[in-house]
Amino acid sequence: MKHVVVFAHPRSGSFIRQAVGAYVDELEQCGHAVTVRDLYAMGFNPVLSEEELAGTGPVPEDIQREQDLITASQAVSFVFPIWWAGMPAMLKGYVDRVFSYGFAWEMRGEEVEGKLHGRKGLIVTSSGAPMAFLEATGERQAFTVTQDVAIMGLCGIRVVEHLHFDDLGPHTTPAQVDDDIRRIRASVRNHF
């Protein structure tokens, strides 16, 4: 199975960087072909231009390359931290530019039609906030609906799981990280 893993975090020592490493390693151990799109390392331009929004002119070369990778894949995964109840601006810009109208979705009368059907999606997120806080404030539901339903689902990608790792910070123990990494590896084996 071909996977595109889109990753967004600027810091080299972050938990989410460890998470993407384990995720990709486990996919490869299971015999899958994996292409990682490390948006910060790539210097991806997240700014949607007026021309792109209008759909005038040719698709920019950097976006065509990403769309070709997704078209050739059977699975698309996002791995990123939750900042201000959402994804980092770098990843939001990727979604805005790559998952564009006509490529990932379009309107059919009054209905939205996802154009990426047949693909699985898995989302891995992290936050410093504890799950009890995320649940009590509605933040967990907000980012889950936005990411799983309004992005992946709208485009026709079937989200098989959204793993969220909470309460990460200076107090995080190596044992907690090890447990989280085990959950990631188990999820890969379970779904792929």
Structural features, described:
The protein is built from 8 helices and 7 strands. The strands form 2 sheets. Strands 2-1-3-6-7 form a 5-stranded parallel β-sheet, sandwiched between helices. The model has no long low-confidence stretch (mean pLDDT 95). With 192 residues, it is of the alpha/beta class. A hairpin with a 2-residue loop joins β4 (105-108) and β5. α1 packs parallel to α8 (174-191). It has helices at 15-29, 39-42, 50-54, 61-71, 89-98, 131-137, 139-153, 174-191, and strands at residues 2-7, 33-38, 75-81, 105-108, 111-114, 120-126, 158-165.
Principal-axis shape: globular
Q: Which oligomerization state do the chains in this entry correspond to?
A: single chain
For the largest beta-sheet, the strand count, sense and barrel status come to:
5 strands, parallel
The side-by-side strand order for the widest beta sheet comes to 2-1-3-6-7
- Computed over alpha carbons, the radius of gyration is 17 Å
Number of helices: 8
Beta-strand content: 15-25%
